[in-house]
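2024-03-11 09:14:02 INFO worker-7 job=invfold-0412 stage=load source=structure_tokens
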């Protein structure tokens, strides 16, 4: 009898609730002057059992390894007790819940991650999660400021982290590698990087664009300067006469003084530059110059309506495939060029393309989405140590925030990274003020 009891105990895994303050302590500091009452945090939760963390967001029910999101380790852990429910039964339970907790039924205030966690905790243990978590929306909405924000908040959505979607039938769930920040070695700027189109925007231009609620993007002068820097460059990708003529056609197309037809052959030159960048025979400097040139050409191309349509609608996610290939080189200058490209992608459609959640295949075994690629670029830049990358990421985040005002999706990973960026700046007591774009974007994100 004792052996049977012992075996039953060994088969009763513990259940925990991981509790995250997505504002990283800023809610406790700023909530009272804004809301008129102090909030300890803005909570995201996940239910942890069987060695996995399950959560609900605007993409449905997902899972990852415990603490495997950009939020890192939880701020608090609530012990819910042990469960007698086998993992197979819980998997089936999640499949049955997938319609109730589907992307279409997600609501930031009334049907969110905490509602899912509460329901899952009761199913597994019969115990409820702490009331201060489930009562948070009512606390916020009971304030005059919260009531004023209610119509806007009704349109927002959150996707906490990259994970694996709960399938239409129970499947074995492998562990997921946690999202971690990548800090590249600080590289000395090259002459190509010091060109006008690569320089840091001024605080004045940031404030002007933010105040006007217009997306950041290259001006016509910056577009032309980028084209000319590629055309005049030498090194490993010195252009032949035909390629120079192609760039001149693109330049005439952009200025409106040449052919109206977009020179689609420019993609061949971009491919050649990318091949030079990834060639084993190219040294590090040459490879970087070729990659930056390819990204500059793509950025100039998507600044025209015809080029934007061609590369976002008529090709198989060529833009983000280019970004993925270049980011593998782990270079600060290339990373900045990628940020410039994605910033400019928001210009003509209000950010809808870069925030698209449609799944596409990277390889036979790996899938991604434009939203995931964009979020990864923002998070890696904000959590890195390069101030210019942080500045560019704040512009990209601001562009996405403008789309958010029209009801588009917003990712809580960006909110967390922005909060961490602001917190570290405050902790270091440098006195440096972060860009207005980032501050405004974070005000949107902090409402989660």
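2024-03-11 09:14:09 INFO worker-7 stage=emit residues=448
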């Amino acid at each position: 009898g004792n052996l049977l009891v012992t075996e039953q105990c060994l088969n009763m895994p513990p259940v925990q609730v991981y509790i995250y303050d997505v504002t990283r302590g800023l809610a406790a500091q700023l909530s009272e002057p804004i809301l008129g009452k102090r909030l300890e945090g803005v909570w995201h939760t996940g239910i942890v059992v069987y060695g996995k963390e399950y959560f609900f967001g605007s993409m449905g029910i997902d899972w990852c390894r415990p603490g495997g999101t950009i939020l890192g380790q939880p701020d608090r852990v609530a012990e819910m007790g042990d469960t007698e429910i086998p993992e197979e039964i819980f998997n089936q339970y999640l499949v049955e819940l997938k319609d109730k907790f589907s992307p279409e039924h997600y609501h930031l205030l009334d049907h969110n991650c905490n509602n899912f966690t509460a329901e899952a905790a009761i199913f597994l243990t019969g115990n409820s999660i702490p009331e201060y978590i489930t009562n948070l929306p009512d606390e916020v909405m009971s304030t005059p400021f919260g009531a004023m924000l209610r119509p806007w908040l009704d349109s927002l959505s959150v996707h906490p982290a990259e994970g694996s979607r709960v399938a239409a039938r129970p499947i074995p769930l492998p562990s997921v590698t946690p999202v971690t920040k990548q800090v590249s070695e600080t590289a000395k700027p090259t002459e190509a990087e010091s060109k006008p189109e690569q320089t840091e925007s001024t605080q004045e231009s940031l404030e002007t664009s933010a105040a006007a609620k217009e997306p950041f993007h290259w001006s016509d002068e910056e577009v032309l300067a980028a084209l000319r820097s590629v055309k005049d460059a030498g090194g490993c990708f010195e252009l032949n006469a035909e390629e120079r003529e192609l760039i001149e056609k693109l330049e005439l197309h952009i200025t409106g003084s040449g052919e109206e037809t977009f020179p689609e052959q420019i993609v061949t030159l971009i491919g050649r530059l990318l091949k030079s960048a990834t060639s084993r025979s190219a040294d590090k400097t040459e490879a970087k110059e070729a990659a930056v040139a390819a990204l500059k050409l793509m950025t100039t191309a998507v600044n025209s309506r015809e080029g934007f349509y061609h590369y976002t609608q008529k090709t198989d996610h060529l833009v983000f495939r280019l970004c993925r290939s270049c980011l593998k080189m782990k270079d600060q200058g290339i990373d900045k060029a990628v940020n410039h490209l994605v910033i400019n992608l928001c210009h003509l459609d209000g950010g809808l393309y870069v925030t698209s959640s449609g799944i596409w295949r990277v390889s036979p075994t790996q899938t991604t989405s434009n939203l995931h690629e964009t979020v990864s670029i923002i998070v890696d830049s904000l959590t890195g140590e390069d101030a210019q990358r942080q500045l560019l990421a704040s512009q990209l985040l601001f562009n996405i925030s403008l789309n958010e005002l029209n009801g588009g999706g917003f990712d809580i990973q960006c909110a967390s990274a922005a909060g961490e960026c602001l917190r570290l700046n405050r902790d270091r007591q440098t006195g440096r003020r972060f860009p207005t774009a980032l501050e405004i974007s974070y005000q949107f994100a902090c409402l989660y």
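2024-03-11 09:14:09 INFO worker-7 stage=report msg="The CA atoms of residues 123 and 206 lie 50 Å apart."
2024-03-11 09:14:10 INFO worker-7 job finished
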